[in-house]
Amino acid sequence: MKAAILEKYGPADSIEIRDMPTPVPAENELLIKVRASGVSRAHTMMRAGTPYLARFAVGYPRPKRKILGTGFSGIVIEKGKNVTKFEINDEVFGDTALEFSANAEFLTISEDGLVLKKPHNLSHAEASTWGDGALTAYSFLFSVIKLQPKDTILINGASGAIGTCAVQFASAIGAKVTAVCSEKNFKLVKSLGAQQVIDYKSTDITSTDQKFAYIFDTIGNIPFSKAAKILSHQGVYLSPKLSLSLLWHMIKSKIFSGKKALFSATGMKAAAVNRKIMSEMIDMVTKHDIHQVVDSTYNLEDIPKLHKFIEEGHKKGNIALTI
Fold first, then answer.
1. What pTM does this model have?
2. Which of 36, 44, 188, 216 could form a cystine bridge with 128, CB 3.0-4.6 A?
3. Measured between alpha carbons, how far is 107 from 174 in angstroms, rounded to an integer?
4. pLDDT at residue 313, rounded to an integer
5. Other residues' Cβ atoms within 10 Å of the Cβ of residue 291
6. pLDDT score recorded for residue 84
7. Strand 91-95 with 71-79, pairing
8. Residue-level pLDDT at 189
9. What span, in angstroms and rounded, lies between the C-alpha atoms of 281 and 169?
10. Backbone phi and psi for residue 119, each to the nearest 5 degrees, phi listed first
11. 133-267 is classed in which CATH architecture?
12. Is 187 within 8 Å of 126 (Cβ atoms)?
């Protein structure tokens, strides 16, 4: 099978497309023919080995898993003898988390992993992206915090994979959403439900007179020290990107009352936990007719140039590979 291989951390050109042996499912595993797989900002960071502390989770000094990618959608073509939850020819989707291996023609995953039957109304390309940015957004808004109708929330990076979903989820329950993105993406973000949109290129968002109950910094480029200026007295700052500065503010905010800083690594949660969150998320998606924003679809061979494209900041929503 063909797969995107990373032997060592480095630039996008470090990725090679190679022929690899097709994996064999263990007794409790599914063999899935991958029809689509996602490529995200999180994957470019993993490839580069940043932040450096993350290498202790994904492999030090080299990646533990050579095949890139986590989000997938495909068809079960073989199963281990102990598998009871799925059948041959089931269409499934999910995320392999720290096992990676999704940017390939085939993958194996435990039936108890983050894998669900694919709803018929989702294409493989769209389904392959729900386990990354969307799951992170849903987890932050409804597990890390309990976002409520009429809560005020500022979403930074609103046109990205996490942001486009966060805007839709927050708007769906009636929260008041202020979105931050570039002016060229205003129309998109407003169509997703944002009530107010701010251009980060022309406006210092931390100088506004507005106060927010929550700031969801999906790209981690607003330091908590600045974000705190526009948080309400008991406001909460959320970020999926950990830094030493954020860690320090998290410790301080646990000790002292008032404004809080919170981090969560959704991909590090147990598969059973994320499977429950994913199931709840898909229920919301169906109920509120929420859709993924898929920037474009590409071929497996395009992965190196896609990593460069993402790092240059051109991506809107999600990118899916058709395999």
1. 0.91
2. 36
3. 39
4. 80
5. 15
6. 97
7. antiparallel
8. 97
9. 9
10. -60, 145
11. 3-Layer(aba) Sandwich (3.40)
12. no
Q: Tell me how far apart the alpha carbons of residues 92 and 73 are, in angstroms, rounded to a whole number.
A: 6
Q: Which two tokens stand for residue 55?
A: 């290498």
| DSSP one-letter code for 300 | G
pLDDT given for residue 307 in this prediction: 96
- Residue 108, token pair as written in the block: 């194996």
Q: How many residues does the chain have?
A: 323
Question: What distance in Å separates the CA atoms of residue 39 and residue 18, rounded to the nearest whole number?
Answer: 18
Three-point CA angle 66, 71, 76, nearest 5° = 95
CA-closest candidate to residue 196, choices 175, 213, 165: 175
> What are 80's two structure tokens?
């281990």
Q: Does domain 2-129+292-322 correspond to CATH entry 3.40.50.720?
A: no
In single-letter form, the type of residue at position 283 comes to D
Q: What is the pLDDT of residues 93-135, one digit of tens each?
A: 999 999 999 999 999 999 999 999 999 989 999 999 999 899 9
In sequence order, the 6+-apart residues with CB closer than 8 A to the CB of 234 are 213, 258, 259, 260
Contacts 24+ apart (CB under 8 A), 229-233: 230/154, 230/205, 230/206, 231/259, 232/152, 233/258, 233/259
Show me where the domains of the chain are located: 2-129+292-322, 133-267
Per-residue tokens: 21 = 């042996």
Bridge partner list, 17: 4
- 228 — pLDDT class (breaks 50, 70, 90): very high
Residue 314: pLDDT over 80: no
Alpha helix segments (H runs only) across 103-185: 124-127, 135-139, 161-172
Q: What tokens appear for 73 in the block?
A: 């959608």
Express as a percent the part of the chain with pLDDT over 70. Answer: 100
SS3 content of the chain, % helix, strand, coil (to 5): 35, 30, 35
Give the mean model confidence (pLDDT) for residues 171-183: 97
Q: 127 — phi, psi (to 5°)?
A: -60, -35
